[in-house]
Amino acid sequence: MNKDQVKGAVKDAAGKVQEKTGEVIGSDEQQAKGLAKQAEGKVQKGYGDAKEAVKDATKR
After folding, report:
1. What is the maximal distance between C-alpha atoms in the chain?
2. Inter-residue contact 21 to 31 (CB < 8 Å)
3. Is the N end or the C end of the chain the one with fewer CB atoms within 10 Å?
């Protein structure tokens, strides 16, 4: 696991918390920010996954 995978997973989790907090307090802005953070985290994790796949493929 590389740093992009970890950072992406953390951003995704933080975005979920932010989204749920926005739901509880009734803030559409917080919900939107949470969704955006989740998307950013998923992209970063995907990038990390791709890097890891290339690294694994070159070891063979």
Report:
1. 52
2. no
3. C
For residue 1, give the 3-state DSSP assignment: coil
CA gap 34, 46 in Å, rounded: 18
Task: Give this prediction's pTM.
Answer: 0.88
For residue 26, is it left (φ>0), alpha (ψ between -120 and 50) or beta?
A: left
Question: Residue 20: which residues within 8 A CB-CB, separation 6 or more?
Answer: 34
Q: Which two tokens stand for residue 39?
A: 């998307």
The residue with tokens 């696991």 is 1
Q: Pick from 6, 24, 2: which is nearest to 16 by CA? A: 24
Q: What is the pLDDT of residues 13-28, one digit of tens each?
A: 999 999 999 999 999 9
